[in-house]
Amino acid sequence: MSTEVTRVLTGITTSGTPHLGNYAGAIRPAIQASTQAGVDAFFFLADFHALIKCGDPSMVSRSRMEIASTWLAAGLNPDRVTFYRQSDVPEIPELCWMLTCVTAKGLMNRAHAYKAAVDANAAKGVEPDDGVTMGLFSYPVLMAADILMFNAHRVPVGRDQIQHLEMARDIAQRFNHLYGGGQDLFVLPEVQIDEDVATLPGLDGRKMSKSYHNTIPLFEGGPKALKAAVAQIVTDSRLPGEPKDAEDSHLYTLYRAFATHEQAAAFKAALEGGLGWGDAKHALCEQIESQIGPMRAHYADLMAHPDRVEEILRAGAQKARGHAVPFMARLREAVGLRQPTAKAGKARHEREAAKAKLVSFKDSTGAFRQRLFASDGRELLLSEPFEDPKLLNHLGRVLSGADLSAFAVDAEGLVSLMAEGHCWARCAQAQVAAVQESLRSL
Ligand code: TRP
Question: Which atom of ligand 1 approaches the CA of 152 most closely?
């Protein structure tokens, strides 16, 4: 088995409701990538970033819930991916400050978003920095902290973010140079632009984007809202029976993003054969619905149970902090913010830190579960839900004496840890050795 793991990380600003363009252009490919072997994916809700763009608290909180539910309903597996909220990891703003202290102001002066604001002010004839907050100005530093905190190798983003990635590399290099003492503290992240993912046209034919007010909602409003939006897509005035230019039609571009090659070819032939725009819109709705329809119930269920989403995000933050806390301690050390090195304190800290933990809890459905944490705080697994807490405990104990390497791996790369005919938990194959060691040490 290859031990090379690529850490892939991306953030989603929580300042809106996900639309079809977000789904086809970002969510769907990211989830797909997260299932590949050798990929350790970190996906997070950039809610601190949302505060820069949006001053409406109810909008920020609603968007956080909608976006989290969307990713989960679209198939993100939180046991496999580290899925968390930026604001649940206090080490990120702490690192952001350390980076701020080594970032040249001149570098930030060159950021596209800031320059665009200054240009717009010049055009209006007002002060260059009118309406520019320090949040907007130092946006790229916070983004660098998001990425460098987890030493991400690859960061899949849209083209508009390329400059931010270059800045993150710049800042990382400078920090490494100043504080690394010959060793690199930060990995230099690579930007990843996916050329082959779909860029969807919006209702007016321009790129689908919240800022153009031309989006088609993904889940919000149900199939009705989808139909109503599709009805508004602009077409030419050719009548039913007249051949249409499929390649030039937004309906066809949208259709293709949700269809197999064969289905798309059939749709194209039908348009060229004179299919009416009304019928074509109907077919487009059905095609989109065939892909997202099955996820709707899950989305609605999550939106109706915010406590479940909350629990998943909390567990994700704990996983993320399993990396962030020890790394931050190292960085504090590097910049000179050392902890007092009383020997006793250190020894106690090491003893406490060096213990694996098995934590039992009742989940939001009322079932009992356990989480296993490694000695470094990383979450290794979440058990299956059990009605009987005694059975759950018992199975964990039985497995701590078993040889876990003997269990088979399934097609998803997961191992079912079985005892006495029950599946106690499923965990990634790569984690089995760590699970074994942690269970034995309890
Ligand atoms: N700035 C990104 C955007 O608007 C969101 C984001 C915040 C992000 N932090 C990140 C993306 C870290 C990748 C990595 O799309």
Answer: 14
What spatial distance separates the first Cα and last Cα of the chain, rounded to whole Å?
A: 28
Instruction: Say if residues 14 and 59 touch (Cβ distance below 8 Å).
Output: no
Pocket test for ligand 1, best of 27, 161, 191 (most atoms within 8 A of CB): 161
Note whether residue 300 is domain-resident. yes
Please count the other Cβ atoms lying within 10 Å of the Cβ belonging to residue 73. Answer: 23
pLDDT tens-digit series, residues 58-111 = 999 999 999 999 999 999 999 999 999 999 999 999 999 999 999 999 999 999
> Can you tell me the mean pLDDT for 405-415?
87
State which residues form the domain around 262: 210-304
Mean local confidence (pLDDT), 189-213:
90
Neighbouring CB atoms inside 10 A of 319's CB total: 23
| Residue 143 Cα: closest atom of ligand 1 | 9
**Residue 341 located in a structural domain:** no
Q: Are residues 181 and 218 in the same domain?
A: no
Rounded distance between C-alpha atoms, residue 288 and residue 267, angstroms: 13
* Residue 155 CA to ligand 1 centre (angstroms): 9
The atom number, within ligand 1, closest to the CA of 156 reads 13
